[in-house]
């Protein structure tokens, strides 16, 4: 739809935009990113003809852009410029109506039903219809921004150029506006080029991103190609870490501050555990980076409190997570700061042990019920009753783990648990074969993220060796304790 070839342009003798080439397809949403002054707005202005191109060419639907009359171009291309603080005395409706000028033959004399429908639809889409008779200078910055998006939208041009459309908008209006724009791309085949400061929003909504540096294209491609830690750091000179969005296959960034809150060194060991009638409790002085399959706060996060709650073997609740959540609240724990697991095994049967390492240490806590032991390789053979009895394993590490090490720690621990069941000759009662676990085992790995770095935790690494040995020993002892208490 739009072809930009070796485009240069700007304000002074020296062009701001230098030798920029890219193409945008119909229905595509392209995000332009870059630090302050990198030339994003200037590029949009040169494309839209507000500033002249010094060299290069812009082709729209196969025709050179300079062959379009001003009005023809406005029917093809709507522009939302970067807004600055102005006093606007027009009403909202008047302002949005200005977007219809390319469709007029005589100024307002030919106002048609189509014009009216476009203006009302644009005001509805941007949620400004309720202000239609209000003067623009009586609206907040975000409300004014939405009115100008409505104006561009009322123009109904197949190509929309936006300069920071979410500037001034609260998060609800950011998503509402971008959802609306994106919908137009998907349903009506509208093409969007938009400047963004917010890298995460750009990644979420755009099909491709163009990252500018000093007026030139530094990176161009799908978000996963452009949003990489090192590339973003190099261009923006800010430390970032990328991570996946929870719902969309789009990378997101988190800023990494250079100023750390002063935090005294802390250490977690067996002395931080308490064994109560109803639960095993670990309380850390500072949050631990945690990965777990717990009932409350499963997944990854940072938590200070860890509970392994004992419920009766007859425990049966429709919504286990909700019940656990309210249990935490009624027992004085803060659910947002607590990882909660459940077991039918008495807290008195927990096995907790410290394992020193050269520069760090780990503490392992296991409760092990094996009444429902299962051979995972044969679990497909028959349906089983909802189980009670489970093996809950916690591995608390004084050390700084990579993401890889967290996952390897879970693998190593699982293998060590299975070996413990083998050692104890625990059988799957349904198949009579050696059990590998129970159907509801839970695992938690938590680390202080201080001190010694552990990039790996496989069986032959320093950390993996201690996890393997520790989980094996603690699981064996925990099984024996449970078996002797029920014998
Ligand atoms: N009206 C102007 N006259 C002269 N130079 C200008 C003008 N507007 C911008 N510039 C210069 O052009 C360069 C690029 O500015 P531009 O506004 O395109 O950057 P940007 O990437 O959009 O920045 P920001 O993120 O701050 O909006 C800057 O060095 C700026 O000083």
UniProtKB/TrEMBL annotation:
An example Pfam family from this entry, by short name, is CbiZ
- Which N-terminal stretch is annotated as signal sequence? none
Any idea what this protein is called? Adenosylcobinamide amidohydrolase
Organism equals Paenisporosarcina quisquiliarum
Single GO term (MF): ATP hydrolysis activity
Q: Which domain of life is it from?
A: Bacteria
Q: Which residues form the ABC transporter domain?
A: 2-239
Q: SMART domains this protein is in?
A: AAA
Q: Which UniProt keywords apply?
A: ATP-binding, Nucleotide-binding, Translocase, Transport
